[in-house]
Amino acid sequence: MTRRTIEVEISLDTSEFDRNFARLSEGPDGFTYAKFSTLSAEQWSISKAAIHIETGSLYSSAKNPIDTSEHEWRGEVRYGGGGVPDNAFPGPARDPGKYAAIEYNRGGDHDWIEASGLREIEPEYLEAILDWLRKRPS
Length: 138
Known about the structure:
- By secondary structure, this protein is mainly alpha-helical.
- The chain has helices at about 15-25, 30-50, 55-60, 95-105, 110-115, 120-135; strands spanning about 65-70, 70-75.
């Protein structure tokens, strides 16, 4: 009688996982942050195009601050604020921060968030994150 030996060997190479884990733990790369900044600038530009210009106060109060650090990106489309006095702009005195809220609450094409389609660009931020997640480690 001949005895046969059956061996089963299982091995796991975690080197790619280790490289991916290291990359993911660092957070998004500069390319992803640059894409975010481009999207934020697009949102700002789109919103300015959608604003009614009666006095210019709301339009000229538009700001698009971008703040990045090693592990954080923050972009804003901002109108008003900053303690702007009521008489800071030509035409009828309007605090741009208050006026932004008034226009938004009026609805229809006065709602500059809706009129500009700002919410429609949000999935592009998610796509930028997914592109970064799909990258292969180097």
